[in-house]
Design brief:
The protein is of the alpha/beta class. The protein has a domain at 14-145: Rossmann fold (3-Layer(aba) Sandwich), CATH 3.40.50. The chain has helices spanning 26-39, 78-82, 100-110, 132-138, and strands at 14-20, 44-49, 59-61, 67-69, 71-73, 88-91, 114-120, 141-143, 147-148, 155-156, 158-161, 177-180. The strands form four sheets. It has a six-stranded parallel beta sheet, sandwiched between helices. The chain has a two-stranded antiparallel ribbon with strand order 3-4. The protein has a two-stranded antiparallel ribbon with strand order 9-10. It starts with 13 loop residues before the first strand and ends in a 13-residue tail after the last strand. The chain binds zinc ion.
Length: 193
């Protein structure tokens, strides 16, 4: 739910986090909020880590192929030099940034900006994916969209890796990952329990 105008803080910035598993619609929701801001003629700028080049190198793109132009950065601190007079800052795939994410977002919000962060809250093992736990702690608004478990149809908040790789980061989409619920999710390198 979009906060109503009266619920929005005044004379200050704030942090919104959209955290969830793959295929939960995080980027779609991020794009929806940023588009709304653009329609209201607010200055919007979007960043993402340059690790993720799945679909496009200069846009954020949801699995449903909506997209918005974005700036690729290596270090989250680069944002501070690039925001200029933007009023709304979007950050996608935030789990790939360092723990500096928290300080950067706090600084932007303290400067009066609306900061919207989207990212995976757990890795493929179901382990909290830093720095998402930390950014969730300092955010004013948290949204956790759920996917649907491909095995049983339950609401799903876990990302199932379909290969046996033990690397924390394996970039891919439906070829490598699917959404699963707690009951159906397992760590691929271990016996299913
Ligand atoms: Zn399930």
């Amino acid at each position: 739910m979009e906060p109503t105008p009266h619920a929005v803080p005044r004379e200050t910035g704030w942090i919104e986090v959209i955290a969830g598993c793959m295929f939960s619609g995080k980027t779609e929701e991020l794009i929806r909020r940023l588009r709304r801001a653009k329609i209201a003629k607010q200055k919007v700028v979007i960043f993402k880590p340059n690790i993720d080049t799945r679909y496009s190198t200069n846009s954020i793109v949801s699995h449903s192929e909506q997209s918005l132009p974005s700036i690729l950065i290596k270090d989250v601190k680069e944002i501070l030099d690039l925001v200029e007079d933007a009023q709304v800052i979007g950050i996608d795939e935030a789990q790939f940034f360092s723990s500096d994410l928290v300080n950067v977002c706090n600084q932007l919000a303290d400067d009066g900006k609306r900061v919207i962060v989207a990212g995976l809250d757990m890795d493929y093992r179901g382990v909290p994916f830093e720095p998402m736990p930390q950014i969730l702690s300092v955010a004013e608004y948290i949204t956790k969209p759920l996917a649907i478990c491909v095995e049983c149809g339950n609401p799903a908040d876990r990302t199932q890796r379909k290969t046996a790789s033990a690397e924390r980061v394996v970039v891919g989409a439906a070829d490598v990952y699917e959404a699963r619920c707690r009951k159906c999710h397992y760590i691929p390198t271990e016996e299913k329990h």
